[in-house]
């Protein structure tokens, strides 16, 4: 019985270590939010192009989005650069370090610039609304 308990604890710790240390393949997560399909589980959120339109050029909007996302806790860049208008970020949960991936693509619009964003979880079937809250925080930061 004791061996089984120790084994279960070690397996749980190994799983938590995998969540935190698993490599993030840009080839898998750096996807165009304009064409990427919705994940099979409800742990994602989007901002569609045209929802937010600014009078600035796409490069300036991309820099503002980059600053807003990097100002959020535990967010780092995974792939792309703001000046290219296509960037993927990793946002990790506070306690266990679960990764979420946020991909943003800025575009020219009739009156300036707009963007598309997709925020999704890597693990699990529920994110407790974290991705939707992150997209709302991005909206708020840009207003």
From TrEMBL:
<protein>
    <submittedName>
        <fullName>DUF1499 domain-containing protein</fullName>
    </submittedName>
</protein>
<dbReference type="InterPro" id="IPR010865">
    <property type="entry name" value="DUF1499"/>
</dbReference>
<dbReference type="Pfam" id="PF07386">
    <property type="entry name" value="DUF1499"/>
</dbReference>
């Amino acid at each position: 019985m004791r061996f089984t308990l120790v084994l279960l604890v070690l397996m749980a710790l190994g799983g938590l270590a995998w969540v935190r240390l698993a490599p993030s393949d840009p080839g898998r997560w750096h996807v165009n939010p304009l064409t990427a399909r919705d994940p099979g589980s409800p742990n994602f959120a989007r901002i569609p192009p045209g929802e937010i339109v600014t009078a600035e050029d796409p490069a300036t909007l991309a820099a503002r989005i980059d600053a807003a996302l990097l100002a959020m806790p535990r967010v780092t860049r995974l792939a792309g650069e703001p000046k290219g208008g296509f960037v993927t970020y990793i946002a990790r949960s506070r306690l266990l370090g679960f990764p979420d991936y946020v991909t943003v693509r800025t575009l020219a619009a009739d009156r300036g610039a707009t963007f598309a964003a997709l925020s999704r979880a890597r693990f699990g079937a529920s994110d407790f609304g974290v991705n939707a809250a992150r997209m709302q925080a991005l909206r708020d930061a840009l207003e």
